[in-house]
Amino acid sequence: MTAPAGSSGRRTRVAVVFGGRSSEHAISCVTAGSVLRALDPERYEIVPIGIATDGRWVLESGDPDRLAIAGPDRLPAVDGDRTPATIGDVDVVFPLLHGPWGEDGTIQGMLEMAGVRYVGSGVLASAVGMDKAYLKVVLQAAGLPVLPSITVTVREWVADPAAVRQRVADLGYPAFVKPARGGSSIGIGKAHSADEIDAAVEGALRHDPKVLVEVSAEGAREVEVGVLEALDGGVETTMPAEIRITGDHEFYDFEAKYLPEEATELDVPADVPDATAQEARELAERAFRAVGCEGLARVDFFLMTDGSLIVNELNTMPGFTPLSMFPRMWAASGLDYPALVDRLLSLALQRDTGLR
């Protein structure tokens, strides 16, 4: 196992891994650009490793500007024709992969087998956090509130779509239809009535053979809490922040999240009662521990019209783009972006690989 950099005074060798095969490839690249820009070259020797959409691993450019969004139709991507690369001899890996084949425990398992330290949650927590259907099972078992939902597989949809339509009708409209293992709001649709369910299911199935159909939290506010492990093993949380969608967006879709010209307002901290803020922080820590997370997570909530909080999702590798809530929440809590990146690397370096 590679020993962490220490008293020798040498720079810590960090492999920043990004891109990947999922539909969130471009967002992973943007996140990597932000992290590369934040890493101090006097402290860290950076090895930028890109995974192309076809799965090829290459030694990518370390230029953050190459990984920025240049416009709605100009999203960044890993150049698969670059020099082939492997993780090699590094002290720690910062896996900035979003979605399946990365954020879902796959790369974590590979790194565990290789005995390489890495930032973030382990195999099981990463897999559970990625799969919205199983996440609900774990959260419910821990006594945490979630919205009613059903899971639909592509086999069920092809074999008996009428039965699926009836299950959705029993759940109630309006309903959100999501790829079960997706993110960045890619493939999400809202069905207001039975006339719209087919298109929503088929749209989600294009991204994942398993989809989640969930009751819409009508009138709810969307608030998020950042969770971070402390170096002493404790857990710290941020004050909740709120996402407010303006303009023509009915929900927090891809364009609202990532394209700068879109109308999204972020309140950090959220304008909520002190008791609500405290409850959100307590629920976020409970969710973090229930899933078995390590390092970091962002826990998303619906603040319902009656004042109750519902856990929506838990992200084990939240985005680090300039518009991302996780770093903004920590900056508002006194931990700026470079310090946040340093904290995550320090946590990874002090953690052993293997069972723990």
From TrEMBL:
| Lineage: superkingdom | Bacteria
Any idea which positions bind Mg(2+) 1?
A: D300, E313
What's one GO BP annotation on this UniProt entry? regulation of cell shape
Alphabetically sorted, this entry's keywords are: ATP-binding, Cell shape, Cell wall biogenesis/degradation, Cytoplasm, Ligase, Magnesium, Manganese, Metal-binding, Nucleotide-binding, Peptidoglycan synthesis
- Report residues binding Mg(2+) 2: E313, N315
* TM stretches of this protein: none
Q: What is its main location?
A: cytoplasm
The record's annotation in InterPro entries points to: ATP-grasp, ATP_grasp_subdomain_1, D-Ala_lig_Van_CS, D_ala_D_ala, Dala_Dala_lig_C, Dala_Dala_lig_N, PreATP-grasp_dom_sf
Instruction: Please report the stretch or stretches of sequence annotated as the ATP-grasp domain.
Output: 136-346
Subcellular location per UniProt equals: Cytoplasm
Which residues does the entry assign to the active site, renumbered to this chain?
E24, S184, S324
Please share the entry's free-text remark on the cofactor: Binds 2 magnesium or manganese ions per subunit.
Q: What is its EC number?
A: 6.3.2.4
Q: Is Cell wall biogenesis/degradation there in the keyword field?
A: yes
Give the GO cellular component terms, alphabetically: cytosol
Q: Name one GO molecular function term.
A: metal ion binding
Binding residues annotated for ATP, in chain numbering? 132, 176-178, 184-185, 214-222, 312-313
Summarizing the function annotation, the protein's role is: Cell wall formation.
Name of this chain's protein: D-alanine--D-alanine ligase
- Organism, by scientific name, is Nocardioides silvaticus
Lineage at the top is: Bacteria, Bacillati, Actinomycetota, Actinomycetes, Propionibacteriales
